[in-house]
From TrEMBL:
<feature type="domain" description="VOC">
    <location>
        <begin position="4"/>
        <end position="134"/>
    </location>
</feature>
<dbReference type="GO" id="GO:0004493">
    <property type="term" value="F:methylmalonyl-CoA epimerase activity"/>
</dbReference>
<dbReference type="InterPro" id="IPR051785">
    <property type="entry name" value="MMCE/EMCE_epimerase"/>
</dbReference>
<keyword id="KW-0479">Metal-binding</keyword>
<dbReference type="InterPro" id="IPR017515">
    <property type="entry name" value="MeMalonyl-CoA_epimerase"/>
</dbReference>
<dbReference type="InterPro" id="IPR029068">
    <property type="entry name" value="Glyas_Bleomycin-R_OHBP_Dase"/>
</dbReference>
<dbReference type="GO" id="GO:0046491">
    <property type="term" value="P:L-methylmalonyl-CoA metabolic process"/>
</dbReference>
<comment type="similarity">
    <text>Belongs to the methylmalonyl-CoA epimerase family.</text>
</comment>
<dbReference type="GO" id="GO:0046872">
    <property type="term" value="F:metal ion binding"/>
</dbReference>
<keyword id="KW-0170">Cobalt</keyword>
<dbReference type="Pfam" id="PF13669">
    <property type="entry name" value="Glyoxalase_4"/>
</dbReference>
<keyword id="KW-0413">Isomerase</keyword>
<protein>
    <recommendedName>
        <fullName>methylmalonyl-CoA epimerase</fullName>
        <ecNumber>5.1.99.1</ecNumber>
    </recommendedName>
</protein>
<dbReference type="InterPro" id="IPR037523">
    <property type="entry name" value="VOC_core"/>
</dbReference>
Length: 134
């Protein structure tokens, strides 16, 4: 069901420092910043030959990233995003298998303008999973 790794997301407490680290120290190509108020984040994509890394920074008072950074003040890996062909079929199969989908279960539009869903980390070995329909 799942396909390629679309991206790996890292929550960062300081977006300027993360851009400098990935852009200069690690010498990667970066996207411009993108504010996603519906998700409570500002994102920057690190473009790699085989995938992307998503740098996540809290946006707004209700950001889900803030509580993660409260527990991990220096930042940390936040989620991994796998591609799926049909997000509603994937969701229904997961729900039928007992996995928990976060929120109301309806896909939201993610950073690439495509539908995304998040799966409960406790159902997947402590890792938050994002599914993106491509
Ligand atoms: Co993501």
């Amino acid at each position: 069901m799942i396909g390629r790794v679309n991206h790996i997301a890292i929550a960062v407490p300081d977006l300027d420092a993360a851009e400098k680290s990935y852009g200069e120290t690690l010498g990667a190509q970066l996207s411009s910043r993108q504010a996603l108020p519906e998700h409570g984040v500002t994102v920057v994509f690190v473009k790699l030959p085989n995938t992307k890394v998503e740098l996540l920074h809290p946006l707004g008072a209700e950001s889900p990233i803030q509580s993660f950074l409260d527990k991990n003040p220096s930042g940390g890996m936040h989620h991994i995003c796998y591609e799926v062909d049909d997000i509603l079929a994937a969701r229904d199969k997961l729900l039928a298998g007992g996995a928990r989908v976060l929120g109301d279960g309806a896909p939201k539009i993610g950073a690439h303008g495509k539908p995304v869903l998040f799966l409960h980390p406790k159902d997947f070995f402590g890792t938050l999973i994002e599914l993106e329909q491509v």
